[in-house]
From TrEMBL:
This is Heme oxygenase. It comes from the Bacteria. GO terms for molecular function: heme oxygenase (decyclizing) activity. One of its GO terms (biological process) is heme oxidation. Pfam families: Heme_oxygenase (PF01126). SUPFAM superfamilies: Heme oxygenase-like. It comes from Methylohalomonas lacus.
Length: 191
């Protein structure tokens, strides 16, 4: 699939933020030989404190943006993993109103959440090997539940392009995606 205008703008505008996020110790540790279940549980708690309020805020607007883009809610998978690992869900992060101020802003926010699923497959394989976890024993969030993540991502991107087909809409989506990456960085930098 070639990038449409929105996707190209999102990738360029958030490339540095994405790299900065991936360089955080909390995420780099996922691939360490001595990574522990306790560390993993703390990371899931941080993700839950982001995904749960962000998904809830998008749903609360009543615009049905997530459904129209084919976005699959992920906070339930996080909650299930945390329950299996006997960890608490953690406190929700405050959601800036700019992330849900319009359908285009919601699209930008969901771009970050949906895109994280692709990297999750790599993380799931790593955790299966290093911690012996499976989708049924604590890595459902990263492993995914449908097995169609690549197809779902392509569908999400296509629908996002159609949803944000004007310069102001694309600008709002890019701004919200950048703000969402910043929110993730702030949360995970403290890990």
């Amino acid at each position: 699939m070639s990038d449409g205008l929105l996707l190209a703008q999102l990738r360029v505008a958030t490339r540095e933020q994405h790299a900065r996020l991936e360089s955080l110790p909390a995420l780099r540790r996922l691939f360490a030989d001595d990574y522990t279940v306790a560390e993993y549980s703390r990371l899931l708690q941080s993700f839950f404190s982001l995904f749960s309020p962000l998904e809830a805020a998008v749903q609360a607007t009543g615009r049905k943006t997530a459904a129209s883009l084919g976005y699959e809610l992920r906070s339930e998978d996080l909650a299930a993993d945390l329950k299996i690992l006997a960890a608490k869900t953690g406190a929700d992060t405050a959601v800036p109103s700019a992330l849900t101020g319009s359908r285009a802003a919601e699209t930008g926010c969901l771009y970050v959440l949906a895109g994280s699923r692709l990297g999750g497959k790599v993380i799931a394989r790593q955790l299966a090997g290093s911690l012996g976890l499976t989708a049924d024993s604590g890595i459902r969030f990263f492993a995914g539940s449908s097995g169609n993540e690549g197809h779902n991502w392509a569908q999400f991107c296509h629908r996002a392009e159609l949803s944000c087909d004007t310069p102001p809409a694309r600008e709002a989506a890019v701004s919200a995606a950048a703000a969402t990456f910043d929110l993730f960085y702030q949360q995970l930098a403290d890990e």
